[in-house]
Amino acid sequence: MQGDPEVIEFLNEQLTAELTAINQYFLHAKMQEHYGWTKLAEYTRAESFDEMRHAERLTDRILFLEGLPNYQRLFHVRVGQTLTEMLRADRQIEVEAIDRLKRGVELMRNKGDITSANIFEDILADEEHHIDYLDTQLDLVDKLGESLYIAQQIEQKAPDET
Questions:
Q1: How far is the C-alpha of 81 from the C-alpha of 51, rounded, in Å?
Q2: Which pTM value belongs to this model?
Q3: Cβ–Cβ < 8 Å for 21, 74
Q4: What single DSSP character describes residue 4?
Q5: CATH 1.20.1260.10 fits 5-155, yes or no
Q6: Is 50 within 8 Å of 126 (Cβ atoms)?
Q7: How many whole angstroms separate alpha carbon 73 and alpha carbon 147?
């Protein structure tokens, strides 16, 4: 099925955002794991995998519309050096995604591509959930301080659990 070029471009723009988020979240998860923040690392890694599933859905849709998924570009990957910087960087990527997804839904509905709009709405719900989580974590860091927050993220595992 031949898709509308504007819709395909929007799908590719969101694909670029998802690919960027995969990299940013995965790097943050590995850094968090390295620092011993096991619980936070597990959550961040899972978010990276969620973004991968979003990228897969977008890729499938672009191909269905006879477009070419663009895997050659990324937006700027923001690497936090501290816990707060990581959370803020991840929040920023979500803020940008939410804005893009809302604009995309409107364009796609106006173009009559309800399926693409529904995909964007599904992704939007996930991104809104993630930004809510990040806001909660940033509030906790603000209330507890980084040191106490980090202490809550450490989980000791027996050698056979790794």
A1: 22
A2: 0.91
A3: no
A4: P
A5: yes
A6: yes
A7: 37
Using alpha carbons only, give the angle 30, 124, 44 rounded to the nearest 5 degrees. 15
DSSP per residue, 43-82: HHHHHHHHHHHHHHHHHHHHHHTT-----S---PPP--SS
CA dist., res. 122 & res. 53, Å (int)? 12
- The identity of residue 35, as a single letter, is Y
- For residue 12, the tally of other CB atoms under 10 A from its CB is 19
**Residue matched to tokens 């809550």:** 152
Calpha distance 104→24 (Å, rounded): 23
Q: Which two tokens stand for residue 115?
A: 């399926």
DSSP designation for 87? H
- Residues 6+ positions from 123 with CB-CB distance below 8 Å: 14, 54, 57, 58, 97, 101
Residue 112: DSSP 8-state: T
Q: What is the residue-level pLDDT of the chain in tens, covering all 162 positions?
A: 799 999 999 999 999 999 999 999 999 999 999 999 999 999 999 999 999 999 999 999 999 999 999 999 999 999 999 999 999 999 999 999 999 999 999 999 999 999 999 999 999 999 999 999 999 999 999 999 999 999 999 887 666 765
